[in-house]
Amino acid sequence: MNRMWDRIRAFLRRKDIVISGRRYGIDALSAMAQGLFASLLMGTIIKTFGEQMHLPLLITVGGYAQGAAGAAMAVAIGHALKAPPLVLFSLAAVGTAANAADIAGAGGPLAVLVVSVIAAECGKAVSKETKIDILVTPFVTLFAGVGLAIWWGPGIGLAASGVGNAIMWATELQPFLMGIIVSVLVGIALTLPISSAAICAALNLTGLAGAAALAGCCAQMVGFAVLSFRENRWGGLWAQGLGTSMLQMANIVKNPRIWLPAILASAVTGPVATCVFRLEMNGAAVASGMGTCGLVGPIGVYTGWITDIAAGERAAIAPADWAGLLLVCFVLPAVLAWAFGMLFRRAGWIKEKDLKLDL
After folding, report:
1. What distance in Å separates the CA atoms of residue 104 and residue 113, rounded to the nearest whole number?
2. Tens of pLDDT along 144-197?
3. Which of 53, 123, 198, 336 to pair with 223, CA 20 to 30 A apart?
4. Backbone region of residue 18 per phi and psi (left: phi > 0; alpha: psi in -120 to 50; beta: other values)
């Protein structure tokens, strides 16, 4: 028995099949978010700009990018799992199947993640094990992936939608409490080495709950950018404010208290978004977890406004809408994180160079 397990472990090592939470829950999930960003999200933004500027080319480009979301996510996951070329290329069809409602029922990003991980590992297991690798590897990857997409896709998609709908329903029912909870938790996920964007996409988190998630993400990014300005100056401001607050993760491990100003800021901006401005994220769900990264989150809210206007659900974009977006995404996170940071610095909880980045 021990010899058998030793052989299995040796085989998995040789094939670089690492069954771990980090490989699947962090590496693959983060890669999936990048694939979703490069396809669905960017396609939505480009198409919206094309519609606003009456440029058919941009509308066409955006439409094709949106349609490639499933394939882009699956290939990104395969790349994160270090899949060989034949497996990686075959995953395009697997992702398309897992993301397509007409094939996989509910489907969606979470279905793409689960199915693509299994298909990639199956393909890696047989890769270059036979003399007809060019036939065997794509066949195994496609058969395992598309088969699972048809079999499991509807259940995974419905489960994810159910959780997301429950969160959105609870936020509509209790906007203050859920505004705090969603904002804080998704904001924390953004700074941790996991993908808040992928989580929001998988749960299809939009509406009030999506706005609360956006508020939390912005509080982390803008909050850390302003909080650490003393140590990192303009380079740190742009890197964190338009890049990612994940840059502070190493410093957080050394002194977890530096995280409190951004977390407290998100606990304020979340309910402000849901209760005061009734801000909604009706653009792509992935934008709910992007924060101010490349201004994707605010742009997502804007594209949602445009979609609502086109659908007749909104007459126009009111000045109060713009004010709410600017306050929730930029002004309040900056002011609150700075104020909380000053208190913690005076209390000795945050010391000189605690927030220093190696930029």
Report:
1. 13
2. 999 999 988 888 888 888 888 999 999 999 999 999 999 999 999 999 887 788
3. 198
4. beta
Q: Are 182 and 285 in contact (CB under 8 A)?
A: no
SS3 content of the chain, % helix, strand, coil (to 5): 80, 0, 20
In this structure, the chain runs to a length of 359
Q: Which residue has the tokens 């939009």?
A: 206
User: How many angstroms separate the CA atoms of 113 and 97, rounded?
Assistant: 12
Q: Which structure tokens are listed for 59?
A: 């509308």
Q: For residues 161 and 73, give the distance between their C-alpha atoms in angstroms, rounded to a whole number.
A: 18
Strand extents, DSSP E, 7-139: none
Cα 343 from chain centre: 32
CA-to-CA separations, 53 to 135, 233, 309, in angstroms, rounded: 47, 37, 15
207 DSSP β-pair partners: 281
pLDDT digits (tens, 9 = 90+) for 304-356: 898 889 888 888 999 999 999 999 999 999 999 999 999 999 999 999 889 99
> 267 is written with which tokens?
């606990």
Residue 221 and residue 344 in contact, taking contact as beta carbons nearer than 8 Å: no
The amino acid at residue 306 is: I
Q: Note the pTM of the prediction, 2 decimals.
A: 0.82
In this prediction, residue 302 has a pLDDT band, given cuts at 50, 70 and 90, of very high
Return the exposure string of 259-297: e unless at least 16 CB atoms fall within 10 Å of the residue's CB, then b.
Answer: bbbbbbbbbbbbbbbbeebebbbbbbbbbbbbbbbebbb
Instruction: At 24, list the tokens.
Output: 């699947």
Interatomic CA distance for residues 71 and 116, integer angstroms: 10
